[in-house]
User: What shape does this take?
Amino acid sequence: MTLIMNRRQLSVLSAAALGSGWLRAQGRRPELVKILVPFSAGGTFDQIARLLAEHMRGDLADTIVVDNKSGAAGRIAIDTLRQAPADGLTLMVHASGIQSLYPFTFKQLGYDPFVDIAPVSLTNRLEFGFAVGPVVPAEVRNLRDYVTWVRLDPRNASFATPGAGTPLHFLPMLLGRDIQVEMNPVHYRGTAAALPDLMGGTVPALSAPLHDLVQQTAGGKVRILASSGAERNKLTPQVGTYAEQGFPQLTSGDSYAVFVNGRTPPALQEHISSAVRKALTAPALVAAFAKAYIEPVGSTPAEAVRMARADNARWATAIKTIGYVPES
Assistant: This one.
């Protein structure tokens, strides 16, 4: 019998053979694996990637290096990954929003979020917080107090975000829709850039990752009014959630994940996932995450995809409600 295969079938077969060959190569590891990071060195993504590299070295590969590919709201790293060979030697740490949210926040995404890239494991889940600075009266201690305050003078309803087209941008906009107050976002390039203006009184409020806000509350200039989880976060047990303060539709969160090229054979994806999940249990990594107020959370590839698809459906509805139109 003659077997005839087209070029695509040959490509898939070759990739599968490469992946399975690595997995059974008599204990030999690849010499080098690269982890792409979508933003510059020093941020949370970079920190997570470097900790994973340290704790997967000797297991996943002899050497693991971190390559910061910043720019275009994280899409340069995505383009680099999808153009890389599907051999499991190029990974990427990015937010799960590149599958669940980006399809609604960019006019030209440039990639198929569920074909060109594939998550092999979550690294952590994160929730969001809404905080105010010293320009907001001290008697504003929770979200209901804040709503009363901005209704008295809607000119106070401006808030900083770490960037346009993010959940941190959309949650206060959804809040404004519910309380019938026009919320005015002021976009910054990251939480670190926004915090000085919050504490200096240039902007009254900030929507940011909860773990970033917790680190700023000790001095008393930053007060967290709400968190976005289904239950109170253990980082801020004294802070009520959006839901328990009357806004259940604002329950939200995000996750970071390790991604590979979407054409990577499933067996190889599972192998990398296992290495990531093992690293996330290393005591030194757990301790380093704790210092940054991050809790490691791993997953299988299938679990990560399932969560991304559920978030994708939820954001499709929310963004349509807001009427957000991407600029680029």
Remarks:
- Confidence is low (pLDDT under 50) at residues 1-26.
- The CA atoms of residues 160 and 183 lie 10 Å apart.
- The first strand starts at residue 32 and ends at 37.
